[in-house]
Known about the structure:
Blueprint: E1 2-9, E2 15-18, H1 20-29, E3 35-40, E4 46-51, H2 57-68, H3 85-93, E5 97-103, E6 106-107, E7 114-119, E8 126-135
Antiparallel strand pairs: 1-8, 2-7, 3-5, 3-8, 4-7, 5-6
Amino acid sequence: MRTELIEIRTGGTEQVVDLGPRIDGYLRGAGAREGLLNVWVPHATAGIAVIETGAGSDTDLLAALRTLLPADDRWEHRHGSSGHGRDHVLPALVSPSLSVPVLDGRPALGTWQSICLVDTNIDNPVRTVRLSFLAG
Length: 136
């Protein structure tokens, strides 16, 4: 198994970051042909999603999360920016990991699917994502 950590700078705004180019580079470097890719974000306030990007779905996802998890003072977890407690609930809705089959050196995704980091935590501008490949 080959593992690599990548650093993603999300800045001080909520973001959905397409990890596709980083994943493709990682798989090329790993000499991956067929197997299983695992993507893991070791943070209590971020997740990994498979979603269409660039056509508004990423913005829609953030809007839906704002509706489900408002950034206000209702949360018991209270440190950081106002409403930060919601960020700690996010991984229960957007998993911190996923596994995807790799076929012919590429993630076996549908036409419009992208693997993305979902980060609503404006207090933590740098994220780490662990990519692991297990050859089949």
